[in-house]
Design a protein that fits this description.
Helix content: 40-55%
Bound molecules: 2-oxoglutaric acid, fe (ii) ion
CATH architecture of the largest domain: Sandwich
Keywords: Dioxygenase, Endoplasmic reticulum, Glycoprotein, Iron, Membrane, Metal-binding, Oxidoreductase, Transmembrane, Transmembrane helix, Vitamin C
Number of domains: 3
Shape: extended
Number of helices: 20
Cofactor: L-ascorbate
GO cellular component, one term: endoplasmic reticulum lumen
Radius of gyration: 31 Å
Strand content: 5-15%
CATH topology of the largest domain: Jelly Rolls
Pfam family, one: TPR_P4H
Structural class: alpha+beta
CATH superfamily of the largest domain: q2cbj1_9rhob like domain
Strand order of the largest sheet: 1-2-3-14-10-17-8-7-4
Function: Catalyzes the post-translational formation of 4-hydroxyproline in -Xaa-Pro-Gly- sequences in collagens and other proteins.
Length: 617
């Protein structure tokens, strides 16, 4: 059977060449890429058919160029995506130039072909003549070299000049389109957004981009993306929307066939146990393409299954009916959700991101103290301008300090960080190596205090505010943990003040984690500076939708506001990690989220935050 439910890969209508389709632009947040490709398509249509093949090559060449040269992972920082918008015009001009040069070249090739043809007609050379060395030489030259020079030489020349021109642009790559699709599906999953809503550019009640209505092709590509990842739940949603966007058409303007969507959708429905619906769609497909072999097989298979079920006493319990409960069950059973993504913690994380608070959230187990907002004067420095402190949680203490960093300061820091942004990494606990990961989508830059007086001022302010020393605060980006082995104490006290500035990407997030290192981790912070005793997380931007910082074990949700900072101790006074500080950055739904981390280390805090004999403190 084509549709053996045990064998997804074999029966799946997806094959490798679908990856090409996946490279097409689909997501409004990468609309520049989408428009570039539409431009290519328009150029294709507007010129004569002879050029079509040639230009198809051009498209392939552009796509492969993107794949080759762009390892910059634009999707991992919104600021980079914004910058690449400027490239669109340059790409359009480069393509237009290339097309006109190609047209000149092709007309010369055409002329050459005509000359050859007329020569053949008038030439009376016969095979005996070719025993003559001069005749033979002329003929061999003509056929061996001359035509190649005419056709191949110029082509290479044009292609190379076009390629080098394109290489100077930092265009998005295939990984960016994949990253954008991944982001869409992540946002959909985290914030429980229906594909229909997203397809019209609506990510929340406040944000509705009517400019960004997705076409059937664009929805289909996201569906395929989810499908290839084994995420049938979201694939089904997007295939359905793609079908809806087709209206009555049997083929879209970009060549997507209705039958193809029906094929996938029927299969996904079947995999989810919705036999009746799968059969209905397969029948619809067969009306369009009566000879469709897989559909014929499938129909027979579905009918047999339905008959078996009927014989066994009607449809299976809930499940074939597409009820909400069943959807939920499928969602949990979907292959890619096993383990972590199906865990209670991940569900709690998503709930907190959505802002669905439950009784007990924000409440300290060990304290009945009410949460308060107050003016805080930890030092005489703050006498005239007290800090606006909001207690978000008592034990462990998590506070928000509002207006702790000015708008001009946030702008300066963002400017300093921008050219230094690199894809954020995480440490592989087993090897100690820094690696990129899907669970952390952002770019970060490390700024030294001496870089700008604004940072030095800030450091002084936070030393007075937290009572902690910044002398052992985080060192160098690459790789900070490994570096601790090589750096000695004197280096720390000289180049001590580093800040990590982060710009999140599309749907950018950082899944639940601890900021402190576990003892079992290779290269844990222990050696030179000690572990990360506390975190100060500055918010350098507002985030219009999404992007909250959530503490999954405490049920605490902090909303970023430009100029505020969150502070908490990662370690107990005994030096043990505070396991309740597990926290995460929720996916950014809309906007460009900037944060800055200051990680304080244990060293130099001995007298500022002395140990306690109480192991719980
Ligand atoms: O951006 C946030 O909200 C949290 C960031 C964070 O936890 C981190 O960078 O370690
Ligand atoms: Fe963190």
């Amino acid at each position: 059977f084509a549709n053996d439910p045990e064998d997804l890969n074999l029966t799946s209508p997806v094959n490798r060449h679908h990856r090409v389709i996946l490279t097409f632009p689909l997501v409004y947040c990468l609309s520049l890429l989408s428009r570039s490709l539409i431009l290519i398509e328009l150029l294709l249509q507007s010129i004569n058919m002879n050029l079509k093949c040639n230009l198809l090559l051009l498209v392939i060449c552009v796509v492969s160029l993107w794949a080759d040269h762009c390892s910059c992972e634009l999707f991992t920082a919104v600021i980079d995506i914004q910058k690449s918008l400027q490239q669109e015009q340059d790409l359009a001009v480069a393509l237009e130039d290339y097309v006109s040069q190609e047209m000149v070249r092709l007309s010369s090739v055409k002329r050459f072909a005509e000359t050859l043809k007329s020569r053949v007609k008038t030439d009376d050379t016969n095979s005996t003549d070719l025993t003559h060395p001069v005749y033979a030489y002329l003929m061999l030259k003509r056929l061996g070299v001359d035509w190649q020079e005419h056709v191949k030489g110029k082509k290479e020349e044009l292609k190379n000049s076009f390629e080098s021109r394109i290489q100077n642009l930092s265009l998005p790559g295939i990984e960016d389109v994949d990253g954008a699709m991944d982001a869409i599906v992540r946002l959909q999953d985290t914030y429980a957004l229906p594909a229909r809503m997203l397809s019209t550019g609506k990510v929340s009640h406040e944000f509705n981009f009517s400019k960004s209505i997705m076409t059937a092709d664009e929805c289909f590509a996201i569906a395929l993306f989810a499908y290839t990842k084994g995420d049938l739940y979201h694939a089904k949603d997007w295939f359905s929307v793609a079908l809806g966007q087709m209206g009555d058409r049997t083929i879209s303007s970009q060549g997507l066939k209705r039958s193809r969507i029906l094929d996938y959708l029927a299969y996904v429905l079947y995999k989810q146990g919705h036999l009746q619906e799968a059969l209905a769609l397969t029948n619809e497909l067969l009306v369009l393409e009566p000879g469709h072999e897989r559909a014929l097989n499938n129909r027979a298979h579905f009918e047999r299954q339905l008959a078996n079920e009927l014989a066994a006493g009607g449809p299976r319990r809930k499940g074939d009916t597409g009820s909400a409960e069943d959807e939920e069950a499928i969602r949990h059973n979907a292959p890619h959700r096993e383990g972590w993504y199906a865990s209670a913690e991940f569900q709690r994380y998503k709930r907190l991101c959505r802002g669905q608070l439950l009784p007990g959230d924000f409440e300290s187990v060990a304290s009945n103290k009410p949460l308060v907002c107050r003016y805080h004067r930890p030092h005489a420095y703050f006498y005239l301008a007290p800090v606006k402190e909001e207690i978000a949680h008592w034990r462990p203490l998590i506070v928000l300090w509002h207006g702790i960093i000015g708008t001009a300061e946030t702008a300066t820091i963002r400017q300093l960080a921008e050219p230094r942004l690199r894809r954020a990494t995480v440490q592989d606990p087993a090897t100690g190596r820094l690696v990129t990961a899907r669970y952390r989508i952002s770019k970060s830059a490390w700024l030294q205090s001496v870089l700008h007086p604004a940072i030095e001022n800030l450091d002084r302010r936070i030393e007075l505010l937290t009572g902690l020393s910044v002398a052992s605060a985080e060192e160098l980006q690459g790789p900070p943990l490994v570096c601790t082995k090589q750096l000695n104490k004197s280096i720390y006290s000289e180049s001590n003040l580093f800040l990590q500035v982060v710009n999140y990407g599309l749907g950018g997030h950082y899944e639940p984690h601890y900021d402190f290192a576990h003892r079992r981790e290779v290269n844990s912070f222990e050696r030179a500076q000690g572990n990360r005793i506390a975190t100060l997380l500055y918010y350098l931007s507002d985030v219009p939708a999404g992007g909250a910082t959530v503490f999954t074990d405490l049920g605490v949700r902090l909303l970023p506001t430009r100029g505020s900072a969150a502070f908490w101790f990662n370690l107990k006074r005994s030096g043990e990690g505070e396991m309740l500080t597990r926290h995460a950055a929720c996916p950014v739904l809309h906007g460009s989220k900037w944060v800055m981390n200051k990680w304080f280390h244990e060293r130099d805090q001995e007298f500022r935050r002395p140990c306690s004999l109480d192991s719980n403190e």
